[in-house]
């Protein structure tokens, strides 16, 4: 045996001795005199070795110390506790290591577990999402989505948007307030109740492909890109502003609102940019419009944008079935209610202002002015009526106006009818406009069809002006109808819209013939 072999043999023997049970401990113990030891407490019993297999398959413990526990351990595959069966959407079934619904996805890999606390990382496990914030822990069953639960399990389906989900009031009187309400927890529309901060950023984007039938011209454009910031701010009940990019003019804030509570019974005061009058369409975001854009003739002659406005409102009764709102606005925003700039048409410095009131009546169920008319899953019955009046002064006009809106939402049907009528005091004529909208959820979670029809009509001026100013030149009688199909590509967050419009407008002064506009548009809208 050579010297190298001797050295290696010696080292291996030394290591084996060092690693032998108790050898290392004995090696480092100092020598002590061989004297009688002091009396000591009884030594603890030796620790028993861990079992070689998982002994209990539903105790949440790693019994055999192999780093895998319960049904995740192969030792448990034949145990009754690990058998498949039932939905996979609760806190228990989403962390039991079992593919309960046998769809090939286990626990948090299963989309059904997406809203459970078990499947949220520690970064947002304490947030105000669908599984926290108190209230009932309700989960969708097999084949259901979260939207299927709204209006059920005692939910009155009256809170499903950011405004009423952050006002501190049980608006639909079902015993659940704000983020405890099913509509606030489970509606993708609501962002203030999602995990994380109570102040959220949101984006709505829309791409359009259009074809003008008369001009035989096509166009593709990114026609909407909106950034919204909304939610609770310190000492402010709810806030909202919308920055809409119109790069051919200027980026601008389109609508802003800062709302504070008055007392604890749901009354409020808000200051806004003056763009919200009586009509519903003007306060709806792009993704809440069944026909893509508001019907121009409904608000052109009746709604004006002020530079700023103050509003007071709240419930009239304890159940929140009847509500009121009053508002006072003044000034003239450059783009009809948008922040920034001043607009005085025709070099006329007459001060523009608006003052009015509106009463909202929920006869059956609950529906509010911020709700979306889109239906994604069948909804409970809601019947509402809004009646309002106001007085407006523009650069040339002074008029009282009345507005009536009637809404029915039932199962797969959404119906609304609106009428605006005014009496022009300066030039003495009557003007009225109406719009009827119908939407039908043809295929749940997949396809919604919509259509509208309406007109703007006016009598002749009894005392016509010498010169038609900016506002008066735009007030032309017209008739319009539109039809649309909305395809939900990803929940109700990403959808594709095909829309046809036929618009017929009377000729302006000095022109002849009816102006006909017919176009088709294909829109893709996304929000988060």
Keywords:
single chain, 7% helix, 16 strands, 16-stranded antiparallel β-barrel, 528 residues, mainly beta, Porin
Rg from alpha-carbon coordinates:
34 Å
Q: Uncertain regions: pLDDT < 50 for 5+ in a row?
A: 3-8, 10-45, 121-136
Strand arrangement, major sheet: 1-2-3-4-5-6-7-8-9-10-11-12-13-14-15-16
Report the strand count: 16
Assembly state of the chains shown: single chain
**Helix proportion:** under 10%
Shape category:
elongated
CATH architecture of the domain at 197-527, by name, is Beta Barrel
Fraction of residues in β-strands:
35-45%
Going by helix content, strand content and strand pairing, the class is: mainly beta
Secondary structure elements and pairings:
Layout (H helix, E strand, L loop, with lengths): L2 H17 L3 H6 L153 H5 L12 E14 L4 E17 L2 E9 L7 E11 L4 E6 L23 H4 L8 E8 L6 E9 L22 E12 L14 E15 L4 E14 L1 E12 L4 E15 L3 E12 L11 H4 L4 E13 L3 E12 L9 E13 L1
Antiparallel strand pairs: 1-2, 1-16, 2-3, 3-4, 4-5, 5-6, 6-7, 7-8, 8-9, 9-10, 10-11, 11-12, 12-13, 13-14, 14-15, 15-16
Describe, in plain words, how this protein is organized in 3D:
The chain has a domain at 197-527: Porin (Beta Barrel), CATH 2.40.160. 7% of the residues lie in helices and 36% in strands. The protein is built from five helices and 16 strands. It has a 16-stranded antiparallel barrel. Strand 9 and strand 10 (398-411) form a beta hairpin. The model is unreliable at 3-8, 10-45 and 121-136 (pLDDT under 50).
